[in-house]
Each structure stands twice: as C-alpha cells, then as structure tokens.
Design goal:
The protein is an alpha+beta fold. It is built from 3 helices and 9 strands; from the N terminus they run αβββββββββαα. Helix 2 (171-177) crosses helix 3 (179-192). The longest helix has 33 residues, at 3-35.
Length: 193
Amino acid sequence: MTPETWLTVMLGIPVALIATYLWLAGVWLADRIRFGEVDMAGAWAEWIESGEDRCFSVGTLKYRWFSGRYVFDGTNYRNDGRPFCYWRTVASHFGHDKSEYIYVFATKDVKSFQTTSYGYGVVNLAPDGKRLVPAGGFYMYSVGVNASLQRDHTMLKVNDRDIPKPGQSARALLEGTFPDEWRRLNVEKIEER
C-alpha cells in the first residue's frame, strides 16, 4: 500500500463517520421541526376493552441508543392483576409522518422460557403542544396456526416506580389507574355472584 493510499484511507474513515453523524443529525432536526418532538419514553398502562380475561397491560417505552430505536416491553395482566405474559420488542420504526410508532413483539407466557407467539403493534401519537405523545393504539398477535386477534387499547402514563417486578401482581397500579374499569371487572362481577 502506497503512502498516498494509506493517507486517503486514514483520513477517509473519520470524514465518512463525521459525515454520517451530521446527516443523521440533520434528518433528526428536520423531523423535529416538521413533526414535533416525540415524547413517549416512560411507563404506560393500557386498558384493552375487548381483552376478555386480560384487559390490562403495563409497558415501558425506552430509546435504545445502541440499536437506534425505541422499544416497548411490558407485561399483560389478567383482570385480577396477576401477570399472564411478557412481551419484548423485536423491531420497530415510526410511520412516515411520525403519527404512529410501529413495533413487532415476541411474547412469553409467565410459566414459559420460550417465545409463544409474535405480534404487531401500533402506538398512535397525537400532538400535545409541540410534542407528540402516545394516545392509544392497537396490537395483533397470532393465536394458533391460522388465526390472529386484534385488540385496541388506551394508554395512560404511570410512574416508573409503580411498575411491579416480574411475577408480582399489578393490582394496586391497575386499580388506581383504571378505577372504573377495575371495579366493573372485579367488584361488580363478585357482587353479581
């Protein structure tokens, strides 16, 4: 390798890296000016009206710098607050106009170490001043070989410290976040018996 080639390579690599980061910063800034700041990091509780015996979920949206994307991981709970399954984000991206966050997830039942199904979810983002925040959404997942289910859900921000540890009941958090829904599913059903 000649000295000129060596010099070109040694200067070309840092210049290419700097140019890449400048390009990404420019795209980020243009998106922020055009669509607003995405403010969805944190803990979110979901109410799934058509969830039958699993109408509640709690998840955390975080930005992962290493992968360059948001992940939405959490737990789906039975109506009495006991955990049913866990989900973790496999892939994600924003829609073309930043009005939705789209993710693919894998689920594991509480008593299983292997993935039991895969699903697809959408979190709708709505303007709140100059920010875009979660305003609900839906998810679909496979059930058996030839079937799938779609569930719509609301999203309410909750305190990260209130999220129960894996395997623990979320009764206190869910009862406080969705009091009317909790009462309808748990208290009124007991009173009917």
